[in-house]
Design a protein that fits this description.
mainly beta, five-stranded mixed beta sheet
């Protein structure tokens, strides 16, 4: 396909809702957009996203093991995981795309990703879970675009956005 083995230093400018890319050499560009969806007659999908420390994931309430979620203070250079659960409480099969993204400023762990789209067939009355891992290489306050679900190229479910305050 005549592309170079090493990518050239392309220039990207982001402003509000526009992105301008100036190519410094041959490239392949792929773009897919997910738009806000109109309400459907289908039962809604249930989507949740929680964050945890994989080195200290559980606590006990009596004899019951309970997950410990991290919600307020995160530490730099400490591994974290995200647990995303998607449930289809309705009686029909749903063909959806799940979008997972690392928090801004985070680095992927365990063969991770910055952004991943997952095509998925969700059977009636079923739940699927996804986990991914990351760490913050510096301190600061970082935003995270939450997990989102699209069906027929329209966003139909979104988890709650998170803000990460990272300290040493």
């Amino acid at each position: 396909i005549d592309l170079p083995f090493a990518a050239a230093a392309h220039t990207t400018i982001v402003s509000d809702t526009a992105v301008t890319l100036t190519a410094a050499g041959p490239l392949i560009l792929y773009h897919k957009e997910i738009n806000a969806g109109a309400p459907t007659n289908s039962a809604p999908l249930l989507l949740s996203q929680q964050f945890f420390n994989p080195l200290d994931r559980y606590e006990y309430d009596g004899n019951e093991r309970v997950e410990k979620f991290v919600t307020d203070e995160f530490l730099a250079f400490t591994p974290y995981g995200a647990s995303v659960a998607l449930s289809n409480p309705g009686g029909q099969r749903r063909n959806v795309n799940v979008l997972l993204q690392l928090p801004v400023g985070a680095m992927p762990l365990q063969h991770g990703f910055y952004t991943r789209g997952i095509p998925l067939t969700l059977e009636p009355h079923s739940t699927r879970t996804f986990e991914y891992y990351f760490y913050f290489p510096t301190t600061g306050v970082f935003q995270q675009l939450p997990a989102q679900v699209a069906e027929r190229e329209c966003c139909i479910a979104s988890a709650t956005p998170a803000t990460f305050t990272v300290h040493f």
